[in-house]
Amino acid sequence: xxxxxxxxxxxxxxxxxxxxxxxxxxxxxxxxxxxxxxxxxxxxxxxxxxxxxxxxxxxxxxxxxxxxxxxxxxxxxxxxxxxxxxxxxxxxxxxxxxxxxxxxxxxxxxxxxxxxxxxxxxxxxxxxxxxxxxxxxxxxxxxxxxxxxxxxxxxxxxxxxxxxxxxxxxxxxxxxxxxxxxxxxxxxxxxxxxxxxxxxxxxxxxxxxxxxxxxxxxxxxxxxxxxxxxxxxxxxxxxxxxxxxxxxxxxxxxxxxxxxxxxxxxxxxxxxxxxxxxxxxxxxxxxxxxxxxxxxxxxxxxxxxxxxxxxxxxxxxxxxxxxxxxxxxxxxxxxxxxxxxxxxxxxxxxxxxxxxxxxxxxxxxxxxxxxxxxxxxxxxxxxxxxxxxxxxxxxx
Length: 396
Hints:
By secondary structure, the protein is mainly alpha-helical. The protein has 15 helices and no strands. The chain has helices at 2-18, 22-26, 36-65, 67-87, 91-103, 107-118, 124-150, 156-175, 196-205, 210-228, 230-238, 242-293, 299-327, 334-362, 367-395. α1 runs antiparallel to α6. It starts with a helix and ends with a helix.
């Protein structure tokens, strides 16, 4: 579990040092500053679309060959993708680096499978909180560090991100033990079975988890959409700089670490995953509402308040909803099931950023946030309906 945690932490650090600075890296390459939201959205979408295509395959391979070897390959590919992104002199190579990083971005899904392998069902929600701790620490340390380094040279954070990726690779090679016993491994799927759309169809058709998985996908579609255009919105509306953005993401990291690290276990025992999921959606909706209501005189206060609500809400929704789905999957299919779930998250994350960037460009910088509020209400309704239907079926 310690190796999994450190692997996730290094992975999040490598990503979080660079992600908030994407608009500042892209802006000098654009003739029209108003297109920054669309280009950043397409960059984010290219990463997650490659991840969507590859993650179910990675999950199925980890069910057959074991977790360790697959995780090492994923981390090595991410390091190569960051390298390409760092030497990019234009948008094409930047896109290529993001696509390669996404295609080998099965680190989180495989790490989740490791957690499921070694954790009893009644402690799984708390164990999945490790993902939140790593996410929180990464976003507490990474963006602030990236903002400070970008003040020296805007490409210096990419070199630091590459260093984190290489440390991650070294740790996985030297410290991670195999968690899937040979007698629990699954047969190698056929190429047709590795089709990500077929994997998703199987997950969505599962009456025990289909509705929850669809709500999971839609939540990350919305969340990744409006968070992708948040920095361009702050740049264009309030002239925020790298350090302002870094502080905002540091706040996200601190709050996410506290929620998913120390509070998710007691909260799960007290309220259960269903209530935490719905409460988290309500908090994310409230945070999203504060962003378009911010004014120049109160921008820092309102935006920092918004990101606190977003961090708390996401810290509740992600592990709770993931745990509900994991508990409804068979023990031998955790890798493929959670891999498909990660692919659904990637599919939502692929659709969300370009869609939000398009709305940002065509309508106004504020419009994506109003759209997100309506979609989050739909997520709450979808999740509640899926749980109620399953309860009625179980009672019947």
